[in-house]
Design a protein that fits this description.
This protein has six helices and six strands, in the order αβαβαβαβαββα. It has a six-stranded parallel β-sheet with strand order 2-1-3-4-5-6, sandwiched between helices. β3, α4 and β4 form a beta-alpha-beta unit.
Length: 225
């Protein structure tokens, strides 16, 4: 019972956080170009479903402060289309910006899009790898009860999850970072063959602003080959 109450508390904090971030994404009108630099290793951020690029702002600021050339893609909107459609938007952006040796840093559904890109892009010089935060690689049992089409892709063994599971070669290029309790992905984000890092964090969304997570992201970007 004590653990249930504790988890409920963190669940509430998570929803308060996402409400604050979604509100900020509406009222703040900063430009994505402010996180780009003329030099530095390119990073492309991919948010989760119903998250626009501003939801990733805490990570964008940290990466930019460490000298990375950070790209956020306004064309993703709120990431409500299929994994394949969103991957196409990102691939078009990479080509238009002439980016190479890119590291993807993703949240939630963004991790599925990132893995799809790793498995489908044939140019070995385009992507270095991916840092995925709270990615539902194995789906979520809660997706069974969600009537929204954009969320039912998270049903375990859905078409897209089954397709991604077949690609085991890309797993070695992935660092999966997740916490002790994720109310949306109760099964966790462990991915066989990837580098899995479980941190003392709680919640699905709050991980984006957690300093322990930021430190792990920076450290592992440097280690990706």
């Amino acid at each position: 019972m004590k653990q249930v109450i504790k988890n409920g508390y963190y669940w509430l904090l998570d929803y308060l956080y996402v409400f604050k971030m979604q509100l900020a994404s509406i009222v703040q009108h900063d430009s994505p170009a402010q996180y780009q630099t003329d030099a530095g290793q390119p990073i492309v951020l991919i948010p989760g479903v119903y998250e626009n690029w501003r939801f990733m702002r805490p990570i964008a600021k940290v990466l930019h402060a460490h000298g990375y050339d950070v790209h956020v893609i306004a064309g993703l909107g709120y990431n409500r289309k299929t994994v394949e459609e969103m991957a196409e938007v990102i691939q078009d952006y990479l080509q238009a910006q002439h980016l190479t040796h890119v590291t993807l840093v993703t949240h939630s559904k963004g991790g599925l899009i990132g893995k799809f890109l790793l498995g489908s892009i044939t140019d070995a010089n385009l992507l270095r790898g991916m840092i995925a935060l709270n990615a539902p690689f194995s789906g979520s049992k809660y997706a069974y009860i969600l009537p929204v089409r954009s969320l039912r892709i998270f049903i375990p063994h859905s078409r897209i999850l089954s397709l991604l599971a077949l690609d085991t070669l890309s797993n070695s290029k992935i660092v999966s970072i997740y916490g002790l309790f994720d109310p949306h992905i109760p099964g966790g984000s462990m991915l066989e063959g990837a580098k899995n890092i479980r941190l003392e964090t709680y919640g699905h969304f709050r991980i984006i602003s957690d300093r322990k997570v930021h430190k792990a992201v920076i450290e592992n970007i440097r280690q990706l080959v």
